[in-house]
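Q: Hi! Curious about what PIHD3 protein looks like structurally. Here's the sequence.
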Amino acid sequence: FQVKSENKKTIWNTEEVPEGSEFDDTWDPREKPEYEIIFKQHVGTEDVFFGMTGKDPSTACCEDIVIKIKLPETKYSDITLDIQDKVLDLRTPKKKLLLHLPYPVNSKEGRARFLSDEETLEVTLRVLRKFDFINSS
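A: Let's find out. The predicted structure is below.
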């Protein structure tokens, strides 16, 4: 089995490299900040009282991922945030976080806000789901 590549000098095919591995830097001395991943779903009375939509409390029914990252002694202007479909890359002068996300997200329509009182960056990302009997909208 041999894979043909466009460049004869490459030793691997681009499909073999996992997404987000270009961000990995094992030699970076910055510490990893504390973070928390929260799954969020939108429910209405038809879900709570009648169970009409078939949603349950599992992550399979969640529409958003909220990532809360503790960044003590950090200013908003020092934060660099890059979000790909499956990777969140956050860098500050003292901290670095490379997070492989549990589900693919819409990287173009997320939002982030820095809560200066709590010294926390809160990133909300919409999960990309295939339509099925639970996720129909």
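A: A fun detail: The mean pLDDT is 81.
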